Amino acid sequence: MSGGPAITLKSQPIDGNNGNSGNAAAQQQQTANNAAAAASSSSSSQASSGTVPPAQEGTRQSSLQRIQLRKQKVFNLPEAQKLAKLSMYSACQFEGCRCTGWKTPQENRHRDVESSYCPEPTEECRNASCRHPLRSHISHLTEISRSSMDELLGAIIDMENLFMSMQRVEDEDTKKVYLYLFRLLRQCVLTRQQAVIRGPLGDPPFESPCITKAVLSLVFYKYSHLNPTELQTMTEVAKTFLNFLNHYNFESPSARRGDPTLTHEDASTYKINYTRWLVFCHVPAFCNSLRQFETSLVFGRTLLRTVFQYMSQQLKKKCISERDRFPEDKRSIITQMPKFLEALRAELLKDDSPIWDSTYRPPNSFVVQQRKRHQEVAPPATIASAGAAAPSGSKRSSVGEPAHKRVKKEVAERVTSENQDDLPIEVVMRAMKSVAESKTSNKSEILFPINVSRDENVKAEEQKRAIEFHVVGNSLTKPVDKQTILWLLGLQLVFAYQLPEMPREYISQLVFDTKHKTLALIKENQPIGGICFRPFPTQGFTEIVFCAVTMAEQVKGYGTHLMNHLKDYSIQRGIKHLLTFADCDAIGYFKKQGFSKDIKLARPVYAGYIKEYDSATLMHCELHPSIVNTQFIAVIRNQSEILKELIAQRHNEVQKVRTGLTCFKEGLPSIPVESIPGLREIGWKPQMRPVRASRPLEESTDPEKLATQFASVLQSVRQHTAAWPFLRPVTAAEVPDYYDHIKYPMDLKTMGERLKKGYYQTRRLFMADMARIFSNCRFYNSPETEYYRCANSLERYFQTKMRELGLWDK
Ligand code: ACO
After folding, report:
1. How far is the CA of 558 from the centre of ligand 1 (A)?
2. Binding pocket residue ranges, ligand 1, CB within 6 Å
3. Which reaction is catalysed here (predicted)?
């Protein structure tokens, strides 16, 4: 769906124009000085050599071209000059020296390594604490391949561009993000590792369904009744919208301060999403050392809601101003755009819109048809030549594979595989019919079905409307009806009776707090149970605060059904995780609802958000967006019956008894397996030869060689500057509560001992212990700590070392 006609806005590109050297002197860090010096000298050389046109307009496209040209120019330099450039960001290899980048001697400090100047390997570093020759900054780099060298140089240029942008940008939030990415790239260049963004921002995709999927659903939902040409037009309109969004420049949160369309909560959500957009979508579009994601594929309704009004106004204006540049046959896209935007706006506002329901899926036939059309109609380049500002999809054209292409491909593959049926539909239909028939014919015989789950009985009650489930909550901005208040008061009592350890005031405070909601189970208009919860949409999880059912109604299945309703409610709002601090007595119940003490969410995602309780256990439940939990048990039962029927049908088909093979008696030593009669009929397929390369590495490596390799990796890891926190076990004397939190400690000393004892018989065992060191550290420490940073840095270094020895999978 992406790659429609390109109507884009002028962006604020990352490199902007490089005319300003920035105030390098004010920078304390030598790194930053190097970046400033390098960026400054390269910009002056660009201007003087005329290789790169001066920045006449700050468009995204011209910035991208400028960046690519500069990279290409650096890639084409002679090796000595490339190494000189790298030396400026490489640690001195001289033992004990802590210098992290060679500094041009005073007399040459205005000369540009990227043009004519090539320092001698003997030239001394200007850094007073180093003074070692350039050679000592590059001795470890001379062996690396050309492509790895170019990758590092590319990252350096990205870093320098970020540095320059940091100088220019005024917005403090944006500046901070640039600084963070600058440091990340700096660290990656120093350690020669891939840049990976970790931390409280979470990992993309951030919401489900993504905007692309919802927009595709909208086309089906609103326009599938149109004739093929009109439907085609609406599809093009949708693609144009997505394209616009993917090139859209979001305003910084500070620029939106005072925006009446944003509530206080929206504003904080927007700030998080803006940071995510900068880090994962915008900056990587210009810095291809960072993995790029497309806005419409990783964000969902929350982001779109906060930007829609302003963005759609701009798109409408743009459509009017670009109208004449569109060819006649594409003008309908422009004319239909307002109608499409209105429809999308309406669905954005509706709480129960199906297009934002992650389980909503247009029928396969529609998806296939759309895909076919998409392949048949003009490819993005043709559409872009319709006179739009920048060719779509050309974000990162020359260096490496554009990451967003990878993402799109993955998504496309997923859609394809989702639509592949491995059994002919008629066969399944036949089995379903037969199951349904057997149910009706057996009905009268089963008076007391023994196997019916409690959940089935509750569902039957719900169907008869003997019980009802409602999500209720207090509000300070909208009127709250009397019924809701009465239910909230009743729920407060249920929680207070069933959770006697909780102070009553605290229960009242949360039940009536506007950020909390309660899923109420109502019987005869009285609440008999409920779950009080607080959603954190930006963090992707919901916190369960209280959960209780009145004593007389317990163990009837209500608790299960309440939880299933909450799961469905959360999934529909794009939330994939539930977290709760469970009382000891309730751990069993939560386990039965799919919760586990093994928390799969990274601590920074929930720490500081969820309320923590002493003597309660944190439990986590991951939600699968395509499961309807209130139907799940029934669906599984039904599916298992259909499967049994399919197996029975297959069994009948292959029951044929064959005469047996006589060829061996007749003297044949062997026959091909596939020639055995009946084998293919029961579904046997010739197996592909296993691909050698896909075998686990340890199978093909002898243990002694492996042990030597592990010893060398361990040695290097121990010597790394970030290894100091992990050299020996943490003692309870140093960190008294460490072992309350860390059940499986690990450290480099213990690993050394295990290695000596021959414990590491496989690569996986070795990697698992090392991974344990880093995960323990990240679990116990918060991301701002030096320890946390050391874990990230050392982990990357470890992976590089393993990769160098061919011991890493990817
Ligand atoms: N320990 C172990 N298993 C339990 C518990 C428990 N405390 N309570 C219920 N179960 C089991 C049931 O036996 C049943 O298992 P089965 O399906 O295999 O037979 C399953 O969990 C679900 O039972 P339901 O009947 O669906 O649940 P119920 O309606 O009894 O509600 C609830 C469960 C909410 C825990 C209820 O028992 C209750 O209100 N207890 C007192 C309050 C409480 O402890 N709340 C949780 C505190 S933690 C918190 O609020 C975050």
Report:
1. 9
2. 454, 498-499, 544, 546-549, 554-560, 580, 582-583, 585-586, 588-589, 592
3. L-lysyl-[histone] + acetyl-CoA = N(6)-acetyl-L-lysyl-[histone] + CoA + H(+)
State the pLDDT at residue 14: 54
Task: Write the burial class of residue 802 (CB in 10 Å: 0-12 exposed, 13-18 middle, 19+ buried).
Answer: buried
Q: How far is the CA of 351 from the centre of ligand 1 (A)?
A: 30
Indicate whether 443 pLDDT > 70.
no
Mutation pick for ligand 1 pocket among 545, 555, 565, 581 (CB with most ligand atoms within 8 Å): 555
Quick one: which of 681, 661, 787 has its CA closest to 734?
A: 787
Percentages of the chain per state (helix, strand, coil), in multiples of 5: 55, 5, 40
Amino acid sitting at position 63 = S
Identify whether the C-beta of residue 711 lies closer than 8 Å to the C-beta of residue 801. no
pTM of the model: 0.47
Residues classed as catalytic = 543
Provide CB contacts within 8 A for 453, sequence distance 6+.
557, 633
| Domains of the chain with CATH codes | 71-191 (no CATH), 211-358 (no CATH), 467-626 (3.40.630.30), 703-805 (1.20.920.10)
Indicate which residue's Cα is closest to atom 40 of ligand 1. Answer: 548
What are the tens digits of pLDDT across the range 178-230? 999 999 999 888 888 878 887 778 888 888 889 998 998 898 888 877 877 88
> How many whole angstroms from 605 Cα to the centroid of ligand 1?
28
